[in-house]
TrEMBL record:
Keywords: Membrane, Transmembrane, Transmembrane helix. NCBIfam families: spore_V_AE. Coiled coil: none annotated. It comes from Halolactibacillus miurensis. This is Stage V sporulation protein AE. InterPro entries: Spore_V_AE, SpoVA.
Amino acid sequence: MLVSILVSFIVGGLICVCGQLIIDVFKQTPAFMLSLFVVIGSILDGLGLYEPFIDFAGAGATVPIMSFGNALVHGALEEAEQSGIIGVIIGMFQLTSAGITSAIVFGMIGALLFKPKS
């Protein structure tokens, strides 16, 4: 179990280091880096490579933003097999709705509880 935790920590950290290098070295915005990581996660899932990556890295692969792209494509492909082309849209929303809803609700609570600085 300790080795699994260590691998997760190292892989997640390396993903974060790559993101920071994209921002610092290539002078890109955080929005660009986040979008790039979502696309990379989507491509890796479409090629069938993200599940083995999750098996190896555990939380190191599921916590970073790359897993959001993985979830979008994974849900779309699963639902497309069952419902056809309309399943692509349904599948994306089914798998990601809990995370998106949580972000909206907690963002709203934060906005109500705290005042922004001027």
